[in-house]
Amino acid sequence: MTTIARPDAGFLRSPSAEKVLADHAGDAAFATTLGRGLVVLEAFDVGGALLGNADLAARTGISRPTVARLTHTLAELGYLRYDWKLSKYRLGARALRMAHPLLAGMEFRQAARPLMQDLAQSVRGTVSIGLLDGASAIYVETARSGDVGTHVPDIGMPIPVILTAMGRASSAALPAVEFALLEQCLKADNPDLWSAYRDKYHAGVEQCAERGFCTCYGEYMASIHAVAAPLFHVPALKQSFAINCGIPAFRLQSGQLESEIGPRIKALADSIRALVNEVGPMIAHS
Hints:
6-stranded antiparallel sheet, alpha+beta, 2 domains, 19% strand, disordered N terminus, two-stranded antiparallel sheet, 286 residues, 8 strands, Arc Repressor Mutant, subunit A, Beta-Lactamase
């Protein structure tokens, strides 16, 4: 992958430790062993919650002997747990500790949660807050009604920026310079995906500027239609947040997403900002 030269680009860190490891090959200041350990941890996902050393070597490209040393160390530290019957590893409870300080620092989530739940119940869908992280947006809070279909958002779950209303709205919340740098990141991260969806990505950002929300009609998941609104940007922490509402497509009437759900998610974003004394982003991109 082409390395993009950019100043103070910590907010554009790749969502994959594996990519960062490849980009820093030959960098004497880069702790390669630590990087490899994080690559191993990131190899665990919903589809691979239980993995052996051979599985991890295949997923990461790291040699099996090196993987074996890393998994042994991570298990001793509590970040992995070893299943003796299956001879495989799963994530350990200690991994949760790493997320807690970050989530605890987002105190607005507690204020937002009841309002999110009210909207989710009203529209029989999901309402979530996402944090921009490179080419992904990561859920940091979510609420849902009882039956939302096959897509059930959860805290920590990443979704692609280019394909989603959440991603486009969180991008729209960025200051202009950071927005331009993110666009370079998205193009370099997956040129084919960028070429196929850049027009819809730009259209979503323009919708946020004009109406305060953007729509997405099944581009990420065909069965789910969604709207999202920029929430706010925290300059000191390089954090950009958005809020979305996803509804099973069969529950929506023609035009309802734009005429009803969109204005409601914008109003919810306004209410959350008022509760926590945050200022909405100035959107002038694309």
